[in-house]
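Hey, resending since the last one bounced:
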Amino acid sequence: MLSTKVGRLLVPDPGGKNLRDVEGNFDVPAVTRRQFDFSADGVRRSIEESLERLGLDRIDIAYLHDPDDHGPQAIDEALPAEFIRRHDIDLVMLAGRYTLLDQSSLADLMPLATVRGVGIVIAGVYNSGLLEKPRPASDAKYDYEAAPVQLLNRANAIADVCERFGVTLPDAAIVFALRHPAVVSVVVGARTAQQVQGSVDRYRTDVPEALWDALRAAGLIHG
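The structure tokens again:
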């Protein structure tokens, strides 16, 4: 299953030839710049350029990347360009809003996805690192910023319950997201083969139902 993202293009920037890229996390020459384009032509161009770079003639999934600040154009032009009949989308990637620390999507998105048969792909399952270790580090991040004290305390409280059941915090983070009926996949990042294997091991962890009951009883998770 192969996916790519549309909505943001890389366009030539001749003036950056002797500079380094400061927009992203890549130490590369700044010979291109990022340009959001949610028009129908922009989406088609994005797909075509991705296929050319990949050396392929098809993809399985096209995600509309960060449409939050481009609502009207993303709705009116981009989705039809992805060949989705009457905006009847197949998947939504949700970052950081259905995790052990944040279940705010239960208010509307997750129930709607369940009713309409839309698959949810959960990203940011560790909330930028706060849930990535058995015990959160004092300098852990949350939403790419320093984690507030109250969230650090909550993560430690969840870890306390996990330990009672022989489960680690990151084990529970992955398995929790996969439990919702609308969730079809969880996305986790990795830099090494060891991290890939670690994610597979966490996915296979046998988490007792009693753990979730205990977390709900303590008011630490909802749903």
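The radius of gyration is 20 Å.

Sorry for the duplicate.
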